[in-house]
């Protein structure tokens, strides 16, 4: 995001799914937070910066019918699509979220480890403007980032790290913090990355 998409094309071309540090066989933290929103099966959910994440697989298993999967890498989305049967309930979008113009609005905005790549305040502002314009009133945003004691970079890029207070301040008074939690993500090669996840409701 906010950079040459070819960088991410190269990542997904050169590595198998389970060779990336962010791989999760089952994104349980994300699933639990989505469940906490109380979203019904007809809720519109967008997974921002999804890569080839298996969240979409799990959402289909849970019966959700309106899923948008967005990433800057066409290769990443192609890998995800190849795992799944053709399903009209999934909209696949190749785009940089900073320049995305969604065709509809969403009840749940999910982002695991995309927002933290935005280290410039102007890019963060643009991202949050897109999110705010896209979320319905009363909708929920789930944002997962590296925690304050997490890595300072990922895939050779610097990241911004957050806790509940910093993220709440960044989102502003239009969002109410519902849940904050720490998560120790174990990479496929056994190292631990410390994440912070937050669930917000748009007020």
TrEMBL record:
Q: What is its EC number?
A: 2.1.-.-
The lineage's top-level taxon is Bacteria
Where the record annotates domain Methyltransferase, the positions are 45-139
Q: Which Gene3D superfamilies match?
A: Vaccinia Virus protein VP39
Q: Which SUPFAM superfamilies match?
A: S-adenosyl-L-methionine-dependent methyltransferases (SSF53335)
Root EC class = transferase
InterPro entries per record? Methyltransf_25, SAM-dependent_MTases_sf
Report the record's Gene Ontology biological process terms.
methylation
Q: Which CDD domains match?
A: AdoMet_MTases
State any single GO MF term.
methyltransferase activity
Sorted keywords for this record are:
Methyltransferase, Transferase
Q: Mind telling me which PANTHER family this protein's record contains? A: EEF1A LYSINE METHYLTRANSFERASE 2, PROTEIN-LYSINE N-METHYLTRANSFERASE METTL10
Could you identify this protein by its name?
Answer: Class I SAM-dependent methyltransferase
The organism of origin for this protein? Paracoccus spongiarum
């Amino acid at each position: 995001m906010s950079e040459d998409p070819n960088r991410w094309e190269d990542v997904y071309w050169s590595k198998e799914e389970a060779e990336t540090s962010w791989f999760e066989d089952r994104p349980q933290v994300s699933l639990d937070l989505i469940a906490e929103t109380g979203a019904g099966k007809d809720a519109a959910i967008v997974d921002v910066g999804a890569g080839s994440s298996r969240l979409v697989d799990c959402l289909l298993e849970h019966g959700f019918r309106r899923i948008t999967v967005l990433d800057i890498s066409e290769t990443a989305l192609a890998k995800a699509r190849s795992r799944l049967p053709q399903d009209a309930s999934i909209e696949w979008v190749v785009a940089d979220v900073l320049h995305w113009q969604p065709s509809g609005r969403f009840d749940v905005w999910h982002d695991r480890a995309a927002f933290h790549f935005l280290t410039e305040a102007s890019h963060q502002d643009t991202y949050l403007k897109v999110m705010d314009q896209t979320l319905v009133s009363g909708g929920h945003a789930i944002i997962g980032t590296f925690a304050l004691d997490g890595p300072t970079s990922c895939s050779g890029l610097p990241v911004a790290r957050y806790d509940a207070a910093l993220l709440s301040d960044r989102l502003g008074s239009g969002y109410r913090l519902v849940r904050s939690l720490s998560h120790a993500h174990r990479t496929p090669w056994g190292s631990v990355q410390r994440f912070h996840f937050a669930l917000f409701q748009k007020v």
